[in-house]
């Protein structure tokens, strides 16, 4: 039961459409290095959740200036990503599939979207870590394992589900709306980080 509670709690925090999820969706539709994208997202979440359970959350709360640096860096990156998405929506050549990106570039973007968001540390390290530790010394790792399992299930379903629907989602009009939607989400998140 503790593992299921961890899974549901983890899913409640990661399912909301944010920068990382929008990027995974886009890469799935593009059928571009989705295995690497999903693996980075799962590994990042697992490391952060397990780190929070091990007590790193206390370290993060003791040094709020680290989150401040991440906040501004994340806002700048999200704004840049939003501009790129808006440009892609306006360029006819970008509407079919866009220029293929190298695996290294896609992985670097995934890492940036995963770790430059200060909210990811609050959600995974601080919140999930605290909730896991409330389960007691014996069950905290069961709770954390459930949260990690939820992350694995979510990113697999999102990435490979989008990949399976890429034929339906891959027409030029859909790409235009997808790029516009992703740009709006990224810009909104950047503004939210700046105003927070």
Proportion of residues in β-strands? under 5%
| H/I helix tally | 11
Number of strands: 0
**Series of H and E elements:** HHHHHHHHHHH
Please give the radius of gyration in angstroms: 17 Å
Structural class by helix and strand composition: mainly alpha
Q: Which runs of at least 5 residues are low in confidence (pLDDT < 50)?
A: 92-96
Please give the largest β-sheet.
none
- Termini Cα gap: 36 Å
Average pLDDT, all residues: 81
Report helical residue fraction.
over 70%
Q: Any idea what the shape is? A: globular
Annotation keywords:
85% helix, 11 helices, 196 residues, mainly alpha, 0% strand
Entry summary:
Helices cover 85% and strands 0% of the residues. The chain has helices at 2-14, 19-30, 34-54, 56-62, 64-90, 93-96, 103-115, 118-133, 140-164, 166-169, 172-195.
Topology:
Layout: H1 2-14, H2 19-30, H3 34-54, H4 56-62, H5 64-90, H6 93-96, H7 103-115, H8 118-133, H9 140-164, H10 166-169, H11 172-195
Helix pairs in contact: 1-8, 1-9, 2-3, 2-9, 2-11, 3-7, 3-8, 3-9, 4-8, 5-11, 8-9
Structure overview:
It contains 11 helices and no strands. Helix content is 85%, strand content 0%. Helix 1 packs antiparallel against helix 8, helix 1 crosses helix 9 and helix 8 packs across helix 9 (140-164). The chain has helices spanning 2-14, 19-30, 34-54, 56-62, 64-90, 93-96, 103-115, 118-133, 140-164, 166-169, 172-195. It starts with a helix and ends with a helix. With 196 residues, it is an all-alpha fold.
């Amino acid at each position: 039961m503790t593992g299921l509670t961890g899974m549901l709690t983890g899913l409640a925090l990661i399912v909301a459409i944010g920068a990382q999820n929008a990027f995974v969706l886009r890469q799935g539709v593009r059928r571009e290095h989705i295995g690497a994208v999903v693996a980075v997202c799962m590994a990042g979440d697992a490391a952060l959740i397990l780190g929070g359970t091990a007590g790193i959350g206390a370290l993060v709360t003791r040094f709020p200036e680290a989150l401040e640096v991440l906040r501004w860096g994340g806002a700048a990156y999200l704004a840049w990503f939003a501009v790129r998405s808006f440009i892609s929506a306006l360029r006819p050549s970008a509407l079919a599939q866009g220029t293929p990106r190298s695996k290294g570039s896609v992985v670097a973007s995934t890492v940036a979207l995963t770790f430059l968001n200060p909210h990811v540390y609050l959600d995974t390290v601080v919140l999930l870590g605290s909730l896991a530790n409330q389960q007691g010394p014996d069950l905290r790792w069961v709770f954390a394992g459930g949260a990690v399992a939820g992350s694995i299930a979510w990113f697999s379903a999102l990435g490979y589900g989008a990949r399976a629907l890429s034929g339906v989602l891959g027409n030029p009009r859909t790409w235009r709306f997808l790029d516009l939607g992703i740009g709006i989400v990224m810009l909104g998140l950047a503004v939210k980080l700046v105003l927070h």
